[in-house]
Amino acid sequence: MSKTGYCQQIKRSAPLIALVGADGSGKSTVGQELLTWLQPMRPTVLCHLGKQTGNWGRAISRLPFFGNKLDKGIIKHSSKARDEKGAGAVTSIIIFLFSMRRVIRFMRMRRLHARGLTILTDRYPQAVVPGPMDGPGLVARHPKGIIARFLTRREQSLYDWMASYSPDIVIRLNVNLETAIKRKPDHRPASLERKVSDVPRLTFNGAPILDLDSTEPLDQVLAKAKEAILTITTRYDHKISE
Q: Is residue 67 situated within a structural domain?
């Protein structure tokens, strides 16, 4: 049986709720509030499914003397992964290893879900829109070199596999660029701009999506999210009682 088939055929006993959005959309705050609300009602864990490459980049840029220059060099090399011929072997390996970090986190999440725990995720892998919004990093159409070609194909297959396990609901937090920059002043504006524009394009393999405006007051955002989640959890509770 293929990995995709394996993901699709597992019988679920608890909800899987994905919380997605660009940096600055309030994922961490909303996620923690929803976790605190859910845990008294049912066993729930919050799983972070990001690669956290941005955290590494910001940490490097803050290094004294050469940090900023090194960070710019990393950005230049990683951007080649989106060129027609792709990145070289070393850069491809690094990008692939970061993707494997996400795969490991995803597999841990799957084990917890298989044990019957309700899962709330911060971010969720998707295979359609490449780039920083939880999609593949090696996206060149004609990568040069055997290593780059192999890793590009392998990374795409891993994202296809993860994406095949669709959430019961995706709560998509939408934010404008101005608000995102105000909330994340240490982030690169160009990176934030791309993430903000990519968020509405994410489909998550046809999973139900609740679009929320994260610039609204937090209590309003939470009320709408809780209403949608209760619909999903009630459905599972009815299945168990039958």
A: no
